[in-house]
């Protein structure tokens, strides 16, 4: 039986036993919440296993707050990315139960309240300048219930720093590798582990880096098998994909 079928059956049983009203059941059956400026997908978790994620960039603080308010009527887990401190301050005034991670620009359900997976992913970044994107990836995965181990400032210019950690990295089930400049770290890690690697190019580097384009092309041309490349600065996408793999591994 599908998730949707189970949901509808449970909903009908709740109405039958007077646990919820008919109007409450109708609200839960609605596929989206119309806010005028946005249609909030209320069935995302039932279809994909995780609620709709809010992309904060380009939205006003009021819009972000309204979307979060709408989602909290239906979901227990909130994840909003690319939210600056001014917008986050406004949201937390209305939703103090949430927490803000300024380094990653993420508003989310408190990570300490989320049960973590048995398996873990490794999040690596080449240098301190890549830290914000690495944290976006790591916190995204943690909000999705994944155990994360961080290995930061392990770039190839001091490759001994990576080798000191490689056994623990290998024991993880997915590696997310964040790097700017020439992006060589992703290829090196891809040649040392037996699990999927998600590579994220960052827009960190001097002029010829072209705001991450050079790094992107370098990673796409990697000869290391098992490496998939995300868009420039897309830590969220890497963390999300890694989390999906762990969830599939533990739920099957």
What does the model show?
This is NCAIR mutase (PurE)-like protein. It holds the Pfam family AIRC. Residues 119-251 form the PurE domain. It comes from Staphylococcus petrasii. GO terms for molecular function: hydrolase activity. The protein is α/β, with parallel strands linked by helices and 252 residues long. The chain folds into two domains: 31-110, no CATH class; 114-251, Rossmann fold (3-Layer(aba) Sandwich), CATH 3.40.50.1970. It has eleven helices and eleven strands. The protein has a five-stranded parallel sheet, sandwiched between helices. Strands 3-4-6-5 form a four-stranded mixed sheet, sandwiched between helices. The protein is globular. The chain starts with a helix and ends with a helix.
The count of β-strands is 11
Helix content: 40-55%
What oligomerization state is this entry in? single chain
The low-pLDDT segments are none
Strand order of the largest sheet: 8-7-9-10-11
CATH architecture group name of the largest domain: 3-Layer(aba) Sandwich
Which of globular, elongated, flat, extended, rod-shaped describes the shape?
globular
Strand fraction: 15-25%
Whole-number total of structural domains: 2
CATH topology of the largest domain: Rossmann fold
**Coarse structural class:** alpha/beta
Question: CATH class of the largest domain, please?
Answer: Alpha Beta
Largest sheet: 5 strands, parallel
Report the span from N to C terminus.
15 Å
Q: What is the element string, with H for helices and E for strands?
A: HHEEHEHEHEEEHEHHEHEHEH
Number of helices: 11
On the 0-100 scale, what is the average pLDDT? 90
Using the CA coordinates, give the radius of gyration.
Answer: 20 Å
Organism: Staphylococcus petrasii
Domain PurE: 119-251
Protein name: NCAIR mutase (PurE)-like protein
GO molecular function: hydrolase activity
